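Morning run. Coffee first, then this:
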Amino acid sequence: MTPAPQPNVIAMAGFGIFIALSLIITWLAARRTNTTEDFLAAGRSVTGWQNGLALAGDYMSAASFLGIAGLVALSGFDGLIYSIGFLVGWPVVMFLIAEPLRNLGRYTFTDVVAFRLQQTPVRVASAFGGLAVVAFYLIAQMVGAGNLIRLLFGLQYEVAIVIVGLVMLAYVLFGGMLATTWVQIVKAVLLLGGAGLLALLVLARFSFNPLALFQEATRQYGDAVLAPGQLVSNPLDAISLGIALMFGTAGLPHILMRFYTVPDAQTARSSVAIATAVIGVFYLFTFILGFGAMVLVGHDAIRAVDAGGNMAAPLLAEVVGGQAFLGFISAVAFATILAVVAGLTLAGAAALSHDIWVSVVRKGSASEREQFLVARGSTVLLALASIALGIVFKGQNVAYMVGLAFAIAASANFPALVLSVFWKPCTTHGAQASMIIGTISTLTLIYLSPTIQIDILKHSAAWFPLKNPGLVTIPLSFAVGIIVSLVAPEPDAARRFADVEQRIHFGE
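And here it is:
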């Protein structure tokens, strides 16, 4: 076993300050969190600017800050496919999804899919797919958290995972969506500022000339670092990953859930525009950070701390700014992980409490207090699950793991959402089949992929050649939904399509 690093006192102080700030926010939010709507939707009182920053905070996860920087540092140009893929999904959200979600739903995107369809079959299938997305996304955040705290506190990986899970549980359980929103806003500002300062310090080493940085990278590692093929050599793999990242954004439960925290559709659209601008600037920084770590830290030093490359950005901070800056960047990364894990946990809790317990088990007859208690109980279960998953998937690159979550979201959630809202013939069984087949086929092909079969199980070959299955599973999910709907029409669902069209444009 690799010995744990020595504790970083400055980083520990930074962590302590952020945790204290989070707990203060939680205490203030807990005083205003008395109902299910408060817990899951912040009382629908969040403004456009606040929700835009919170959306950016939710989206700029450990995969963005730690994972992409690590992929670029170890693989060069190919790491950009994640930056671009994560960003280009936002126009789809803004122009296709934001307004229907806010006008048709209440707490989860399943409300939208089930609006004109039979509730129970759709909600069960949707919860199945949504929880699979949440699980893979949680893995990425927890793996990043474990590596980060191990690097800075000198704790063992497993102990670090447990600590993160318990801290996150404390403020989600008591503060709900309001606390999570404000923690995400604080985290977005800190992350954008920290990444920008780190990028400036890197460029200062090269007279603020990015071309000089890239030239140094090619001098040390050859021209290949500026060419595609280091990370994704199969063109089909690149296409598959790209479409999963693009359409997966519009199927992420914790992102879609944020549109219920605002008072109206116009605010929902404006918040997406703000989030897109913030996220776009941030992803420009990650490219500089990745090449900066490649040149100033080096492949060997990055892999020595974490084989997946997830600690490239913190190690770069230490090189350009010393222990104090390492402490600051690490505290920012920790804030990033905590905020995203909180949003994911709330999304999972909403699926379990609102979609399964209230709508399916209790047939909509649960009292307000019962809904509130079930939502909180679901939060505890998901926190325990996130701890277990983080331990099992130790050593994986967090950006790659999030890529798999996007593949599930793009295959299980996005097709059913689009078909139910925009295609009149869509039926209950069509939407249900689309979500179930999308989820099962994606999970199956992920298991049969080189990542699981070769990297984790250490087999000599994989049954399925692509690392990301989106190229197969997204068209399959659309096809299944369309075919099942056409084979067995549902007149009641078709008649209610007019209600959907009216609500999309005019609200309630």
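The mean pLDDT is 82. Good start to the day.
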